[in-house]
Amino acid sequence: MIEGLLGLRPLAHRHQLSISPGLPASWPWVRLSGLVVGEHTVALRITPSSLDVLHSAGPARLELRYRLHGDALLLPLDGAEHPPDEVSDAEGRWLRVVLAPGQRVLIEATPEGISLRSPEEVGV
């Protein structure tokens, strides 16, 4: 269910979590806390237009990939230690963000494009 509805694809041995959500129209949001991905623990809040991720614990950085649909544009983010970037594979386009343990990020789809806000802006 988690992999199907929420589009979660953990690759724990690579310290990677890919997310391609497909929430049912009747679900305004879903929250998962204490989700274990190998040695990592994350909390997620997924809506039809956003993804809020907290990498609460882990031995290393976690690579998060968020599926980009259509021709969504990535809006620039200045000053990030590990800036997000776009990667492509056989399944499509992804926004890649690297999160250290304790780091949180909010990804939002707006008419202008895909934005990413830092933990300070989210209000951790």
Please tell me about this protein's structure.
It is a single chain. With 124 residues, the chain is mainly β. It has one domain (2-122): Sandwich (Maltose phosphorylase, domain 3). The protein contains two helices and ten strands. The protein has helices spanning 2-6, 119-122, and strands spanning 8-11, 16-19, 30-37, 40-47, 50-57, 62-68, 85-89, 92-99, 104-110, 113-117. The strands form two sheets. The protein has a five-stranded mixed sheet. Strands 3-4-5-9-10 form a five-stranded antiparallel sheet. Strand 9 (104-110) and strand 10 (113-117) form a beta hairpin. The longest helix has 5 residues, at 2-6. It is globular. It starts with a helix and ends with a helix.
Report the top-level CATH class. Answer: Mainly Beta
Q: Unreliable stretches, pLDDT < 50, 5 or more residues? A: none
What is the helical fraction, as a range of percent?
under 10%
Number of strands: 10
| Strand order, largest beta sheet | 1-2-6-8-7
Distance between the termini: 29 Å
CATH superfamily: Maltose phosphorylase, domain 3
Question: Architecture, CATH level 2?
Answer: Sandwich
Overall mean pLDDT stands at: 86
What CATH calls the topology is Maltose phosphorylase, domain 3
Total helix count? 2
Report Rg. 13 Å
Fraction in beta strands = over 45%
Fold topology:
Layout: H1 2-6, E1 8-11, E2 16-19, E3 30-37, E4 40-47, E5 50-57, E6 62-68, E7 85-89, E8 92-99, E9 104-110, E10 113-117, H2 119-122
